[in-house]
Design goal:
- The complex is a heterodimer of chains A (230) and B (294).
- Chain A is α/β, with parallel strands linked by helices and 230 residues long.
- Chain A has a single domain, classed as 3-Layer(aba) Sandwich (Rossmann fold).
- Chain A is built from 9 helices and 10 strands.
- In chain A, strand 7, helix 7 and strand 8 form a beta-alpha-beta unit.
- The longest helix of chain A has 17 residues.
- The relative contact order of chain A is 0.19.
- Chain B is an all-alpha fold.
- Chain B has 11 helices and 2 strands; from the N terminus they run H-H-H-H-E-E-H-H-H-H-H-H-H.
- In chain B, strand 1 and strand 2 form a beta hairpin.
- In chain B, helix 2 crosses helix 3 and helix 3 packs antiparallel against helix 8.
- At the A-B interface, helix 2 of A face helix 6 and helix 7 of B.
Chain lengths: 230, 294
């Protein structure tokens, strides 16, 4: 579904990605693990087209997207949930939820979203940023679920959240998989990533240095610990 | 009671007349606020685009025989399209740079537009009569007789300001606009063509200025400096209301027009400077403006 080859990216003068290669198959949940500053978020942003400059190749269902503007990339069926969540303060919860335009018929309608996230339904007319951190994260995921996008790029959805909220996010990611969506997940919280993901890529210094399928995870724990330094 | 009324009457009269100026302040600062909010550009050409609206109305009448009502529609369209061309070819290149570059560019554009009009038509002013539909007895407000056309200016201005506010605060398109003001990149990553929205926003802001220009043509003489007279006060209004705040610019537009009127009753010499005194006080007490988010 997604094939990334030799992806490089820059912020101003600083060269952040040095040739990233990764693949994500249809319906898979794949994580990007690595220490702070390894280039995980930048990889996601580069796929979405929101870095200052990038080169290499990113093919989505066979379409080369390296030269496309972010709105065109989104229209192909890729949705991005940024690390800072990006809830709009000047919009109500409902306006936030309905903001992203539908790009394809979606299996997730508003009723389904209200069932998955009952908290949101109760707060529809509050300003978006009056929600708690966990609720804002739910809202950020919920609003891209109803657009019909097929590939979700989730950047650290559990960051700074309480364990009970993290469990709820875990169930949400599972729900995404059941609907048949594909997820590329950046995660610092390895325990969380371990539960939800099919495969793990490990990043260091702007490159992918290893790939560990779920089945080999147990056997690769020592290797992984040395990468992550935990 | 009667004596109080005698005191109050000039106050109400000047306040109401001030509302006519306020109508223009509100329309112009509204356009500036919309453009600044979305593009982060301080549109110094706004006064020249206002003037151009009036001049195009005069040209439509003189060369094409198209009267006031046609001009009220066509002139904003023509000047707004010019705005679209300006945004696409020039302003859009400056978004990644400091505010100052946009300000310098639009200031230069204002000088060019005013210079071209002065060159073509001189400085003495072009006549533009009050439309026939308003050649009727003044409107009796109880405490004064208000010329019908001035009454119309206030009504139209309030309608347009409320309409714009509604479009931005309550519609789907408005929610894209508000969201893009906060995080343009994320809105674009949702699949919205943000650069196109910016072009359309600039065109709309400029069209609003031209619309105000057509409204002004029958009451102020149409001349190259008519925008420059207004725009200095309008910038003070925008600062008082809060940069980028739609409601702030509209409310302070009308309020400051009326305050100018009241000042004329008690101390006429200060009526031209009172806006700037208020601006200085607001900047000291609330630097983000009365309605601005700090």
């Amino acid at each position: 579904m997604l094939e990334v080859r030799g992806l490089e990216a820059w912020y101003g003068e600083s060269h952040v990605l040095h040739g990233v290669d990764l693949d994500v198959g249809d319906g898979e949940i794949v994580t990007l693990l690595g220490r702070n500053g390894a280039g995980k978020s930048t990889t996601i942003k580069a796929i979405m087209g929101v870095v200052e400059s990038r080169k290499g190749s990113i093919r989505y269902n066979g379409t080369e997207t390296i030269g496309l503007a972010p709105d065109r990339i989104a229209r192909l069926g890729i949705a991005w949930c940024p690390e800072e969540r990006g809830i709009f303060a000047s919009l109500t919860v409902k306006e936030n939820l309905l903001l992203p335009p539908e790009i394809a018929p979606s299996q997730v309608d508003l009723d389904r979203i209200y069932t998955l996230f009952p908290n949101l339904k109760e707060r529809l007319s509050s300003p978006g940023t009056k929600l708690s951190g966990g609720e804002q994260q739910m809202l950020a995921i919920a609003r891209i679920m109803r657009t019909g996008a097929k590939l979700m790029l989730l950047d650290e959805p559990t960051e700074g959240l309480a364990p009970v909220i993290i469990q709820q996010i875990g169930r949400t990611v599972q729900a995404l998989k059941e609907i048949g969506l594909t997820v590329l997940l950046v995660e610092q919280n390895f325990r969380f990533a371990q539960k939800v993901a099919d495969r793990h890529y490990v990043m260091e210094h702007g490159r992918i240095v290893d790939m560990i399928p779920r089945a080999e995870l147990e056997a690769s724990m020592d290797r992984l610990h040395s990468y992550l330094g935990v | 009671m009667t004596e109080l009324w005698y005191d109050l009457e000039p106050f109400l009269q000047q306040g109401t007349l001030g509302l006519v100026n306020g109508a223009f302040y509100a329309l112009l600062s509204l356009g500036l606020a919309v453009i600044f909010g979305m593009l982060n550009v301080i549109n110094f050409a706004h006064g020249a685009q206002f003037m151009l609206g009036a001049v195009v109305a005069w040209m439509l009448l003189t060369y094409a025989g198209i009267g006031y009502w046609g001009a009220l529609l066509l002139s904003p369209l023509i000047v707004g399209l010019l705005g679209v061309v300006i945004e696409r070819t020039m302003i859009s290149r400056l978004y990644k740079l400091d505010h100052l570059y946009g300000l310098l560019l639009t200031f230069g554009l204002a000088l060019i537009i005013e210079g071209l009009v002065r060159n073509q038509y001189g400085v003495s002013g072009l006549p533009y009569g009050v439309p026939d539909a308003f050649r009727m007895p003044p409107v009796d407000l109880g405490y004064m007789l208000m010329p019908a056309y001035r009454f119309w200016i206030v009504v139209v201005s309030i309608t347009v300001c409320l309409g714009t506010w509604y479009a931005i605060e309550k519609t789907k398109l408005g929610s894209y606009l508000r969201a893009a003001v906060e995080r343009p990149q994320l809105v674009q990553a949702f699949g919205v063509n943000v650069p196109l929205m910016m072009t359309a926003t600039y065109g709309t802001g400029v069209a609003l200025a031209a619309f105000a220009g057509v409204l002004a043509a029958p009451v102020y003489s149409v001349h190259p400096g008519m925008g420059a007279n207004f725009i200095i006060i309008v910038f003070a209004v925008v600062v008082i209301g809060g940069m980028g705040s739609i409601m702030g610019s509209v409310v302070s537009g009308y309020a400051l027009g009326m305050i100018e009127g009241f000042t004329r009753v008690y101390y006429p010499e200060a009526s031209a400077t009172v806006v700037f005194v208020i601006m200085a006080i607001v900047l000291l007490v609330r630097p983000a403006g009365l309605f601005g988010r700090a």
